[in-house]
Amino acid sequence: MMIKTINDYEITNKRILLRVDLNVPLDNGQILDNSRLKSIVPTINIIKSLKGKIILISHMGRPKGIYQKELSLEQIVPELTGLLNCQVHFSSQIIGNDILKKTHELKCGDILLLENTRFHHEETSNNENFSRELAKLGDIYCNDAFSASHRAHASTVGVAKLLPNCVGCLMKKEIETLEKVLKEPEKPLVAVIGGAKISTKLDLLLNLIEKVDYLVIGGGMANTFLFAKGIKIGNSLCEKDLKNTALKILAKAKKNNCLVILPSDAVVSKKFSSNSKSIVREIKDIKKDEMILDIGPSSCDKIKKVFSISKTLIWNGPMGAFELKPYDEGTISTSKFAAKLTKNNKLISVAGGGDTVSALKQSEVDKDFTYLSLAGGAFLEWMEGKELPGISCLLRSV
Ligand code: AMP
User: Fold this and answer.
1) How many Å apart are CA 135 and CA 139, to the nearest integer?
2) What pTM does this model have?
């Protein structure tokens, strides 16, 4: 990788402006999942041990340039303090003379967290002056927020161009893992793509069919492919207007020697509710008033067979409407099998994007996958083959 890491710099006594992603799910100030906070601890600890001074910057939610108490990063301070086992100072100011003075007063190993960068609209517009003000706060810029790197914002791109820069441990691991699975994967390579709709994952599908040997399509998006193939799918979620697109994807897959695996059976119900009876049906037998809500057992078996003959797995999106039982079974059973193969060193498994992490956590396999990316949009854009501005600006300035 042609990007510098924190170890490439002499950082003792230096102010490290560390871009992290503290955008954790909150409910009334309570952190619902602290995975993102845990994931930045290694980089912070390295900087501390090398006697650098840490200035943390991050966004939270989408406040659109206006202060909102419920999106203040001050709420994160107690949890971060606990995880790091040391005091985390907080500044409600992000730019200006007072905060600049504070950064110069920091002692080696001190940690100062700045307020949500998106309380300034200049953050999302990647304003030059704002970036310059941010750059004054550090001697070195370190980006450990892969999950925010698909955005060309002041804290991810603007400031990176103005300071000597590098990536943190999390970002390094994320880039290396994703590069390995997409650019030089151990073959055969299988991709599992699920979730609600094709329309949100067109670029992803088109990029993957050029690279993977097997493409497993599940979730609501499989319905559109089944419909395009002339199969009656009853009341199932379906993007009928994308029939031709689905057919084109299937044709392109064939041309690229990519075998597409669609569900052969499904768990169906008349309503999407816990008290509506569910039944397993062959795909060809779906009734008019039924909807497909999960893949069925024989589809699961087929997918497991494909996993058994593959060396690398990329996973995005659930196989069914996993939020409601029993429609989580397809995702649970197939992901558990992938986790078992991974544990036995037979499969390299990488998953990420949107609901995928919660679906795999529900399956309790999140720790057994080789890598679970906490990045949503950034993971998807990488898998779509797009350039991420927050990473390319670091590459260019080396
Ligand atoms: P995505 O964010 O595109 O990965 O989509 C995730 C969403 O797809 C989840 O909320 C699932 O409930 C939904 N989903 C998956 N399969 C189905 C299905 N067969 N019918 C309706 N929704 C589904």
Assistant:
1) 8
2) 0.90
